[in-house]
């Protein structure tokens, strides 16, 4: 990227990324077991029963025979070197799917039908560009792959590849993992897209800086994935969404290179950065990001508040979002999520919080500024009916903020279907959206446990993040597909967006078409045709 930066010697993280559990979430060493009493409770409340068939072992799973012609494979090897083209079963299975509940159900059943023919690991922008040109010429489908954390079906192109292309490859960006430059005058840094969240924070911490982007997927998702899916971190109230952080980028496409972002803001036509942000690898592959950075906080303070109802808590969050002062982290769990204890690190079956709804407020920043902002925000919360709970609930949330996906794994193993979905709306439409999604899920699933929280707030509206737990039916994939379809229809009908931060993928494509209309879909198809005429980039994702 041709920018004026205070260059640093190119830096790489001290640790290599460890692979996730192949059929679950995160570090296998952090996997948790569901306590016996909680299993009994799920059985009594929801009718959950242990599955009859145990989950498959990785060594037992066989991906489909590769379809990629050997001469094409040789061309790809010539670009990145033989050591950086993986064709073994394990590498292919690990790149077969994302981490949605349907993805995990298929993997746990030993279904690796979505596996690519090969995994390519480029080490530079030029190598990515060369690989895309070969794949376009040879009609090979390409799935850009970061941390593998998509929960909307964003990493499975096998069905489209089988029908339309000569093969399928995963383009793993792990080797693009460098901090290239730091501009402390402009407070920006240039980083490569294969860096996972903790690696990026490690590199920036050496310079006293942070991105402040901490989504639940933080430990495994990558910077490129954050940009491609318009990620929003748990501290978005203070630091902004990831798309707010992107001031420039370099993108490789089958047609050539895009260099985007000459200034923080511009009136030189539509901002093409916004075309790539949220495009989920369908238009190009991000190979470099210039990001806004902040000084690393000197002080962090988290605390809990209780409101009598979700309605009262929502009104309090709206007041802070519109009038300030705004905490760095601000989230509100509804009555059910608060009662169940999912807002705390213990997860389902955790300590009771005394009823009502839990608010977590967190403050990060300069040592002299944080207490003042906290005091002013506390005055607002108390004035609107909030009861202070002290630091305990906030610190507990901060300690366990990345643990919920591990809980999902043990619930799946126990015979429960558990999944999340999220949306957003303007404040005036939020109650209708909340009721509509809950009603749709209950209608599709009978008597599930449906929990919700607000975790991202704006002056004009907020997000709703739902967690659903129900007993698995005889066909749990069809069961969830029906529930997801009902929820998507409810979101569209109630005026919400089909995704606030998970993206479109394949799971939301039909609802996205309804959201943007036919003319909007035609615009996307036109961009796709111009940047990727052969349609090799992540086919089946995003484009209606």
Structure in words:
The protein is α+β, with helices and mostly antiparallel strands. The chain contains 19 helices and 19 strands. It has a 7-stranded antiparallel sheet, with helices on both faces. Residues about 345-355 have low confidence and may be disordered.
Brief overview, please?
It comes from Planomonospora alba. With 544 residues, the protein is an alpha+beta fold.
What characteristics describe this protein?
single chain, 544 residues, alpha+beta, 7-stranded antiparallel beta sheet, 6-stranded antiparallel beta sheet, 19 helices, FAD-binding oxidoreductase, FAD, Vanillyl_alc_oxidase_C-sub2, flavoprotein, FAD-bd_PCMH_sub2
What overall form do the CA principal axes indicate? globular
> For the CA atoms, what is the radius of gyration?
23 Å
Taking strands numbered 1, 2, ... along the chain, how are they ordered across the largest sheet? 16-13-15-14-18-19-17
Question: Which regions contain 5 or more consecutive residues with pLDDT less than 50?
Answer: 343-353
Helix content range: 25-40%
Number of strands: 19
Mean pLDDT: 94
Q: What class, by secondary structure content?
A: alpha+beta
Largest sheet: 7 strands, antiparallel
Q: How much of the residues is beta strand, in percent?
A: 15-25%
End-to-end C-alpha gap = 32 Å
Number of helices: 19
């Amino acid at each position: 990227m041709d920018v004026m930066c205070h260059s640093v010697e190119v830096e790489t993280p001290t640790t290599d990324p460890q692979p996730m559990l192949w059929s679950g979430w995160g570090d296998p060493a952090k996997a948790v077991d569901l306590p016996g009493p909680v299993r009994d409770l799920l059985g009594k409340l929801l009718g959950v029963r242990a599955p009859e068939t145990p989950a498959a072992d990785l060594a037992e799973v066989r991906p489909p025979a590769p379809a990629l012609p050997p001469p094409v494979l040789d061309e790809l090897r010539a670009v990145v070197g033989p050591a950086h083209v993986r064709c073994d079963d394990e590498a292919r299975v690990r790149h077969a799917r994302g981490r949605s509940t349907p993805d995990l159900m298929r993997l746990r059943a030993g279904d690796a039908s979505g596996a690519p023919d090969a995994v390519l690991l480029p080490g530079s922008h030029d190598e990515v560009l060369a690989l895309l040109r070969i794949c376009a010429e040879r009609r090979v489908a390409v799935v850009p792959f970061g941390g593998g954390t998509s929960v909307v079906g964003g990493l499975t192109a096998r069905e489209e590849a089988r029908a339309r292309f000569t093969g399928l490859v995963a383009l793993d960006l792990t080797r693009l993992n460098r901090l290239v430059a730091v501009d402390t005058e402009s407070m920006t840094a240039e980083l490569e897209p294969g860096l996972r969240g903790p690696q990026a924070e490690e590199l920036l911490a050496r310079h006293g800086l942070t991105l402040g982007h901490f989504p639940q997927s933080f430990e495994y998702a990558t910077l490129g994935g954050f940009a491609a899916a318009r990620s929003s971190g748990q501290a978005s109230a203070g630091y902004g969404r990831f798309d707010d952080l992107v001031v420039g980028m370099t993108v490789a496409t089958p047609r050539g290179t895009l260099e985007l972002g000459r200034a923080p803001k511009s009136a030189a036509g539509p901002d093409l950065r916004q075309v790539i942000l949220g495009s989920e690898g369908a238009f190009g592959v991000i190979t470099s990001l210039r990001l806004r950075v902040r000084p690393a906080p000197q002080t962090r303070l988290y605390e809990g508040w209780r409101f009598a109802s979700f309605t009262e808590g929502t009104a309090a969050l709206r007041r802070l979002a519109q009038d300030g002062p705004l905490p760095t982290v601000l989230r509100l769990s509804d009555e059910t999520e608060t009662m169940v204890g999912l807002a705390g690190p213990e997860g389902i079956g955790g300590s009771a919080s005394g009823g009502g709804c839990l608010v977590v407020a967190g403050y990060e920043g300069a040592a002299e500024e944080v207490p003042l902002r906290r005091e002013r925000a506390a005055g607002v919360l108390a004035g609107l009916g909030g009861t202070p709970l002290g630091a305990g609930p906030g610190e507990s949330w901060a300690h366990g903020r990345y643990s919920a996906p591990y809980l999902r794994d043990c619930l799946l193993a126990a015979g429960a279907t558990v999944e999340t979905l999220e949306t957003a709306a303007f404040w005036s439409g939020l109650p209708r959206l909340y009721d509509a999604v809950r009603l749709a899920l209950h209608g599709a699933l009978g008597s599930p446990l449906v929990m919700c929280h607000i975790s991202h707030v704006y002056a004009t509206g907020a997000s709703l993040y739902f967690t659903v737990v129900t007993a698995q039916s005889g066909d749990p994939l069809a069961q969830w597909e029906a529930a997801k379809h009902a929820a998507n229809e409810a979101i569209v009908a109630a005026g919400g967006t089909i995704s606030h931060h998970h993206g479109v993928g394949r799971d939301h494509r039909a609802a996205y078409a309804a959201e943007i209309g036919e003319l909007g879909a035609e615009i996307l198809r036109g961009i796709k045709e111009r940047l990727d005429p052969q349609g090799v980039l992540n086919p089946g994702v995003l484009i209606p």
